[in-house]
Amino acid sequence: MHLARFPRVRLVHAPTPLEFLPRLTEQLGGPRLYIKRDDCTGLATGGNKTRKLEFLLGDALAQGATHIVTHGATQSNHVRQTAAAAARLGLQCTALLEARIADGSVEYRNSGNVFLDRLFGARLEHRPAGLDMNAEVEQYAARLREQGEKAYAIPGGGSNHIGALGYVASAQEILQQADAAGIVVHHVVHATGSTGTQAGLVAGFQGSHSGVPVLGISVRAERAAQEDKVWQLASRTLQHLGVSAPLPREAVRANSDYVGAGYGRPTPEMVEALTLLARTEGILLDPVYSGKGFAGLLDLIRKGHFRQDENVVFVHTGGAVGLFGYRDTFDPLHAAA
Ligand SMILES: *Cc1c(COP(=O)(O)O)cnc(C)c1O
After folding, report:
1. 132 and 209 share one domain
2. Active site located where (predicted)?
């Protein structure tokens, strides 16, 4: 797999650290827990979307684009990172924000990521929940083209075979770091949503025959649907990379037991996991993705899913800025006021 064949703009402060979590490992009595700090990708408070944007915006620039159009939920980390990357490259950015959580608080609608989207100069448009948002983005980009603009449409979460290359790069980075430090990676676990992260990781680990299994903790879709979507995109990504061997279905594993009431809806397990990591290791998770992903990992550890002497790498996909849109979830006094 030769990533230099694809257009790319450098945005990530790479390599992001691969850190051991000594206090939490001890408290849980194993497995040995490591964290891949993709919350520290550098741009605009970091996160996983910056890796995808290196290849998506590389492609956009190669096509002469001047205006980026994308979408996300109101508190989308993807939109925030896209807005910042566009600003950095001198491109215009329009984001369609889907009101996926209709009863969101004033802070949910204005603070956290939304505050930063505006600061980065993105044009924000609002859409009700339940539309085909990728189609909305395509339509919007087509209208801009009719007006003579060079528009480039990015799907939700930057999840297509181009964006997923960013997580092929991350898989390669994890293997290099683990090899250099002499750490055998027995499991990789992370939060999965629009599927580009898991598809890229699976393509990267499979394409390099590393044998590293990836478990995605779903934040939205049920298991069979999520696994199918990840498999489709990972297969498409491998094809794009010129790897012809078919991807085994078993290479894609998702778990949807930690979604709770739905996308972006806090769960008590998420609050517990987020608070535990903050207080044992000083690391911030986010309420929508990495908090639920880590809650799933903790529950699986407590149920004995991993051997004590195994090394488990949690990929921290970022998003802590979203906490400011969820202050009432963590601050009962504030909620009561
Ligand atoms: C988007 C996002 C994810 C999920 O990644 P996908 O590639 O969409 O599956 C996980 N964590 C955070 C913080 C995100 O913003």
Report:
1. no
2. 76 (nucleophile)
Do 315 and 192 meet the contact criterion of CB atoms below 8 Å apart? no
Nearest alpha carbon to residue 241 among 282, 287, 191, 206: 206
**Domain match, 191 and 310 both:** yes
Instruction: Tell me the pTM.
Output: 0.97
Per-residue pLDDT reduced to its tens digit, 46-75: 999 999 999 999 999 999 999 999 999 999
Give the integer Cα–Cα distance in Å for 233 and 49. 16
For a ligand 1 pocket test, name from 233, 292, 317, 324 the mutation site with the most ligand atoms within 8 angstroms of its C-beta: 317
The answer to whether residues 44 and 2 touch, using CB atoms and an 8 Å cutoff, is: no
SS3 category, 259: coil
CA dihedral 194, 197, 203, 206 (to 10 degrees): -120
Tell whether 330 and 182 lie within a shared domain.
Answer: yes
Residues with CB under 6 A from ligand 1: 47-48, 77-78, 157, 159, 191-198, 286, 289-290, 317-319
* Domain that includes residue 264, residue range: 18-46+160-334
Angle at 149 between CA 146 and CA 154, to 5 degrees: 100
Determine the Cα–Cα distance for residues 120 and 151; give it in Å rounded to an integer.
Answer: 18
The tally of domains found in the chain comes to: 2
Catalytic positions: 76
Residues 6+ apart with CB under 8 A from 37: 16, 17, 18, 19, 316
* pLDDT for residue 334: 55
13 assigned to some structural domain: no
pLDDT for residue 335 is more than 80: no
Taking CA atoms, 311 is separated from 42, 165, 206, 209, in Å, by: 26, 25, 19, 18
Last residue of a domain, one of 154, 174, 191: 154
The Cα 15–Cα 134 span in angstroms is 31
Q: Does the CA dihedral 126-127-133-139 come out positive or negative?
A: negative
Task: Round to the nearest angstrom and report the end-to-end CA distance of the chain.
Answer: 55
Co-location of 73 and 194 in the same domain: no
The rounded Å distance from CA 289 to ligand 1 centre is 6
